[in-house]
Sequence to fold (606 residues):
Amino acid sequence: MKPSRSARGRTRLSEVGEDTLIASILRGLPNSRSLIGDDCAVLEFRGARNLLVLKTDCVVENIHFRASTDASLVGWKAMMRPLSDFAAVSAVPQFALITLIVPATKSALWVKKLYNGLKRAAALFGVAIVGGETSAIRGPIVISVSVSGFVERKRSVSRAGGKEGDDLFVTGHLGGSLRGKHLKFVPRIHESRWLTENVRVHAMMDLSDGLGADLPRLAKASKLGFKIDKDALPLAPGASIDNAISEGEDYELLFAVSPRDRPRLQKAWRKKFPKVSLTPIGSLIHPSSFIPHPLKRGYVHFQ
Amino acid sequence: MKPSRSARGRTRLSEVGEDTLIASILRGLPNSRSLIGDDCAVLEFRGARNLLVLKTDCVVENIHFRASTDASLVGWKAMMRPLSDFAAVSAVPQFALITLIVPATKSALWVKKLYNGLKRAAALFGVAIVGGETSAIRGPIVISVSVSGFVERKRSVSRAGGKEGDDLFVTGHLGGSLRGKHLKFVPRIHESRWLTENVRVHAMMDLSDGLGADLPRLAKASKLGFKIDKDALPLAPGASIDNAISEGEDYELLFAVSPRDRPRLQKAWRKKFPKVSLTPIGSLIHPSSFIPHPLKRGYVHFQ
Fold:
């Protein structure tokens, strides 16, 4: 870890940022027999044909939701966040474990509503909630959800693999999520599974921290640069270009395909998903190329 | 959920207790294609010979560790707790995901020490840390660890399956864990794997909430009663019988085998694990039988 040092000789996490922290953690790991994924961990399960896909994520009171937020929406969001990472790697989620950390003074009714939200979200994608843990806390509520599932070897896709000249597409609309969508979104699992069955997707991820933070990650993982046409961004109603780039929590797909596949993709998509927009927003370019529209950073944890 | 109602018409979790909460959650689940485990979830992974085993657990500041506790010991405990559940079902842990929820004001050095503890614990059992998430919190530190692995169909064991007349054994010593062991224990995975390879284990679990809370769970899952000889309990140095029954965090194995297998088990155990005691403490009996030594309850969350 090589963060800058504060005056008192102690580096605070707020000075490091999440990418740096995670990178430093991954660097320190012992060699794994397995591939380390980015959105999900994608692994060999001994003796199995398909790959094992794992993801854990959490929501924290006063960070990801307010104390006044409807508990069933909190549950929905807590389940859908890791499922959006399954969309990112085109995997099928199967099982969820839930860790609920909640003050003993909280009402049982609140917890019941929370589980209703978790169950409704899981049921939408056929995910079975197979276990859970609870703990008390003297502080904010935390809900952590771990999901496991599978992806066929041939359909596994990651942030790496983008090729120079690839067209970049995003699904749906960007920006304005914090006005409500972030509690009610539906992860693009169906769209993602359709994509890897019908198109050669070179690289893909879900947009959780905002295009301005996430697109550079996809480009970096693919060892490429990028250019985008800001005016082409599909803006959510009332959202500005800045909102679309920086707000985060869009939970849309960003992916790269060869320009040769573009016409066929767009035509087939319109037929399959007439209500979901698919927008070309730019392309992957040589890493040394001039970037005409540098993106402002999206949401970065701890900052 | 049928808890008693408080005067203000709102039931608090502290009035419900963890078993009731978890039971009510499980009752509300949609039918799963899979077995719902108790210590771990033990599941079919499509197209695989072995069963998929999943477990998530967490440690929370001021609940499971103090702010002053050495961070590497916190990491050790956070990893070893779910691994103890793998011991309970005789499974082999393979992959871990870590969710770290920590105030932005916390030092990066603390986090580095925490990860060192997590990594040392994982390495002891060949577990690969394959991913993680981080989040800020305005409150106590939370570390959630999700572990996946496998168990051979023939060696899978659970709390259910105990037979009337079975002898009950515990490994190691009970009580006094909170004086230090709870931060340094080594889950009984090697012992558990040896047991299911060499003995017909009818039912097994790990002792995390204290014998007084956990043994009734094993008996109930096996639809049996139990009797124990309190004076036979293997007490940790300085621990009383009450400590051994009620304190919790022993992370020892409790298991049931036929009395016919007892002599062979005890002889082979002494040879294989000369430094780990194995103590017969009682037996499983008909559920309607008189229980001469009712156990005080062990640690129950939220109470």
Observations:
- The two ends of chain B are 17 Å apart (CA to CA).
